[in-house]
Model the fold of this input.
Amino acid sequence: MTAVHGSPDVDVAGDCHCSGGQPKNFVLPCLLLLLREGPAHGYDLVDRLVPFGFSSDPPVVYRNLRRMEAEGLVVSCWDTSGKGPARRVYQLTGRGVSRLDAWTIAVRYQRDVLNTFLKRQAEETLDHEPASARYERSPRPA
Done:
């Protein structure tokens, strides 16, 4: 799933192409979290992933749901009660809740690491002129 919705594209002096994307496989804990909030069908989950910074990509969501079902993290059944075609509805299992808890620990750790980076960068910026200005003035090797 492409993580582009609302993420900044930064190009600094042609060296850094920072997309602000999510960590690898971040769609998995997001899907688990959304399913902990209640059973849902795939297209509903596609729409609900947007606030997490993902663009709409149904094939990726369905591929991950099938993988999660094969791993026993979710179960699904066909809902034929509504108008239109039957829809597969996914529900979190106990194993899925345990996996979500493990992801939550990992995400908190990543948050702490990122906060450390941001704090140090903010301190550097407050205490001194921006680093980019210092490096622009520094002599370049011949």
